[in-house]
Specification:
Helix content: over 70%
Structural class: mainly alpha
Radius of gyration: 22 Å
Order of helices and strands: HEHHHHHHHHHHHHHE
Oligomer: single chain
Shape: globular
Strand order of the largest sheet: 1-2
Length: 382
């Protein structure tokens, strides 16, 4: 390694080593260290988002490969996550006890899920669906991890626009992780269209492998089963309940008008950016959930209601109606996974329960708007 590359590493080590001391969670954290720790989390989550975005498209084209480029990108992000978890756990810097437990639990679940997923593929062969138990463990672990990071930033960051901006970015990562399994249907509808055009996106070896696993010929019915392996009601219900729940919590904790809409719009914009990049690289593309922006607008409008219980019930009705109408419009004018309108009452009921629970949770644990105090001290010394 050349001298110009060694000097920055030595400088970084000289800055960081004095902080490497044992401490309890909630320890007063110098402001520069706090910023570096959470910059590390943003970088790690960005790598995981980039890897996961490519991963779904990859698996609609090729047979599984443990060393596929998307997995390698995810692995770099995971390595940073593990390092940060160790730093928080050993030093106690940058997190309170609750945030640390959430981060440690999420990282642990994720690391256990990885070998379980590998074993699942070895035993059961191709596992294309994003909704399998081993895959769900990966999302659940990541969700706990991000929840801990959100908690740590919320309770530790000083008030101001930077605090709100980073909090919004963390909720964007949370939304992407929550939405991830739904991308199976979004890629699936385009996979069926490609087959109908006589230009299947999946390689012949992948189609034959899937057909052999199903015990049938490579035909349209097989492609439909391969591309849309879950009931039609799952996509709109999951999107309206799980996806919107993230936006509701974000609106409560950020405490700024139109924050839910901005987060949803940022996610949709990201999906629009990667769409042509995947197409140029000759990878499958997907339907983009434009309707999510309409649901998010309904969330922000609901927060004009000041009574929490009324807001939750009226908001659930407004969001469900807006989400299903926007999804119907997208399904008619552009493209989207199958829509089952009869599932709307189920989505409303579940969202109302989740929203009421979110209102209670945020109030109970003082997570609404701005934190009551910051743990960061610019004058603290290691």
């Amino acid at each position: 390694m050349t001298g110009w590359a060694v000097r920055p590493l030595k400088s970084a080590a000289a800055w960081a080593l004095p902080y490497w001391t044992r401490g309890e969670p909630g320890r007063e954290t110098p402001s520069d260290l706090f910023r570096v720790l959470y910059l590390g989390w943003v970088i790690a989550m960005t790598l995981k988002v980039l890897g996961s975005s490519w991963d779904v498209s990859w698996h609609f084209k090729w047979l599984r490969d443990d060393l596929a480029p998307p997995h390698l990108i995810n692995s770099v992000g995971t390595a940073i996550v593990v390092a940060l978890t160790i730093v928080h756990g050993y030093t106690g810097y940058g997190v309170d006890r609750t945030a640390l437990r959430l981060i440690q639990t999420g990282t642990g679940v994720f690391l256990v899920a990885v070998p379980l997923d590998l074993i699942n593929h070895r035993v059961n062969g191709l596992d294309i669906t994003s909704w399998s138990p081993s895959h769900m463990l990966l999302y659940i672990g990541t969700a706990f991890m991000i929840a801990g990071v959100i908690r740590g930033w919320f309770t530790g960051a000083p008030e101001g626009s930077r605090r709100s901006l980073v909090l919004g970015a963390l909720f964007l990562f949370c939304l992407e992780n929550t939405w991830f399994p739904s991308q199976h249907q979004e890629y699936g509808v385009f996979g069926i269209h490609a087959w109908d055009r006589g230009e299947p996106e999946a390689e012949p070896i992948l189609l034959q492998f899937a057909a052999d696993q199903m015990g049938r010929a490579v035909d349209r019915d097989m492609v439909v089963a391969f591309s849309l392996p879950v009931p039609d009601f799952l996509y709109p219900v999951y999107a309206t309940v799980a996806g919107v729940a993230v936006l509701v919590l974000a609106r409560m904790m950020i405490g700024r008008a139109w924050s839910a809409t901005l987060i949803a719009a940022a996610y949709v914009a990201y999906r629009m950016v990667i769409w042509p990049l995947l197409a140029v690289a000759d990878f499958p593309v997907s339907a983009v959930p434009f309707f999510l922006v309409g649901a998010a607008v309904c969330v922000d409008l609901a927060f004009q209601i000041k009574v929490p219980v009324v807001r939750a019930l009226a908001g659930a009705a407004l969001v469900t109606g807006g989400s299903y109408l926007a999804l119907y419009a997208q399904h008619t004018l552009l493209d989207s996974p199958p829509l089952m309108p009869a599932s709307a009452p189920v989505a409303f009921g579940l969202l109302a329960v989740v929203w009421l629970g979110g209102e209670w949770f945020v109030q109970r644990y003082n997570l609404k708007g701005q934190p009551t105090g910051a743990r960061v001290s610019a004058t603290a010394t290691p």
